[in-house]
Specification:
binds S-adenosylmethionine, 266 residues, 7 strands, 2 domains, disordered N terminus, elongated
């Protein structure tokens, strides 16, 4: 038996927390707020000038985007940083009830949960992908399949319906999508099972097919775990994201111009 390393989504140590892009972005935004505040206070104290709030928000965003560019954060962070203070000000100006913000915050929190750490956001795959995955499954015998990061459970439920002879399950870290998938399984009387948790704690040796739709950041650790735990002859499938330096056994496309499915026979 190969040594088992539970390494799905590594927990960030306190020192490495600051290396997470979301944490850096937040830090730069707070830093920019205080810098703009300092400048505004100095202008008021020395020159009697008062700075327009919208202009201040614009400068705060510009500074935060500058810091993010300097630290080489991904391009989407620059846009988020630039517009964040302006959008915040706009939302305040709308004078919406605070409960609406709380509701929005809770929905996003339970939907994205640890995305700031795992860097694997929720995004569902579609029917063309489910069809392509169904065709990749071993047909001649019953199998055990797991979708690691099963989201709303669409793929797992669909496969369970197509293949009543086999066992289909999903594991999902975020509470809201997990709850939706459990309810969907219950309401459709599906045989698919959904567990809430981190796939890093799952033993891949128990499965014939492991399916992943994660993100480029997660792939090296996933490969390490799959190689340590998956049995010879079993199948690792990754939708959209290849594994650096791991040549796939097969690559298939669900549709033209759609992301591909990378397959590794272990
Ligand atoms: C791109 S979505 C894919 C959803 C689903 N597999 C599908 O095909 O529709 C990735 C999902 O993985 C979940 N996830 C991320 N890291 C995880 C982890 N370490 N353990 C379990 N789920 C995780 C996210 O919460 C998200 O719902």
């Amino acid at each position: 038996m190969k040594s088992v390393r539970r390494s799905g989504a590594k927990l960030a140590s306190p020192e490495s927390v600051f290396h997470l892009p979301a944490v850096q972005a937040l830090f730069f935004q707070i830093l920019s707020f205080f810098l703009v505040l300092l400048i505004a206070r100095s202008l008021a104290a020395f020159f009697g000038m008062s700075i327009n709030l919208w202009l201040a928000a614009f400068f705060q965003g510009l500074l935060a985007a500058g810091f993010s560019y300097w630290r080489k954060l991904a391009s989407w962070w620059l846009a988020i940083q630039l517009f964040f203070p302006l959008v915040l000000l706009f939302a305040l100006w709308l004078q919406l009830p605070p409960t609406l913000f709380m509701l929005g915050f809770l929905v996003l929190l339970f939907l994205y949960w640890t995305t700031f750490r795992t860097q694997v956001p929720f995004y569902p795959s579609g029917t063309a992908t489910w069809q392509a995955v169904a065709e990749l499954l071993p047909q001649e015998r019953a199998i055990r399949f797991v979708d690691i990061g099963s989201g709303l459970g669409g793929l797992t439920l669909n496969l369970a319906e197509r293949r009543p002879d086999s066992e289909f399950s999903g594991i999902e870290i975020a509470p809201l999508p997990w709850l939706v998938s459990v309810l969907r399984a219950f309401l459709t009387r599906s045989g698919a099972r959904f567990k809430r948790g981190d796939y890093g704690h799952l033993d891949f040796a128990a499965y014939d097919v492991v399916f992943a739709y994660l993100s480029p950041v997660a792939m090296p650790a996933l490969w390490e775990k799959a190689r340590a735990e998956m049995r010879a002859g079993t199948l690792l499938l990754s939708y959209e994201f290849p594994i650096p330096d791991a040549v796939p056994t097969m690559v298939v496309s669900s549709l033209v111009n759609q992301p591909r499915i990378y397959c590794w026979r272990m």
